[in-house]
């Protein structure tokens, strides 16, 4: 897929129209993959049927520092960040020029991080933090 828009167009109908390489023009299922799944990058598994981002808006996904999950937000045509459905509703209410755009056109559902692709040093840091926290809780009598 060459663009984010092309990907979103496929993802928004994925359950009704599963993506098959055989249905794509000039593509064969025998063609090698553009990239291979390995630990050189962190992978995520996206959810199907997320609505296509409305024209003029950008959907952004931000990976948390501890790689535990992603956070979704939308950037409006004016550059304002919307971090929740409530913020989307308020923005649409305050901007009547956005008629034709509905709050249901936005989804804050995020992909799941594939744990085996999280960098080892991040997992080690998490494990150390858990041990430290358990040790502190045990010393203070908290459990």
UniProtKB/TrEMBL annotation:
A molecular-function term among this protein's GO annotations: DNA binding
Keyword Transcription regulation listed: yes
Cited Gene3D superfamilies: Methyl-cpg-binding Protein 2, Chain A (3.30.890.10)
UniProt-listed SMART domains: MBD (SM00391)
InterPro entries named among the record's database cross-references: DNA-bd_dom_sf (IPR016177), Methyl_CpG_DNA-bd (IPR001739)
MBD domain sequence ranges: 43-113
Annotated Gene Ontology cellular component terms: nucleus
Signal peptide start-end: none
Protein name: MBD domain-containing protein
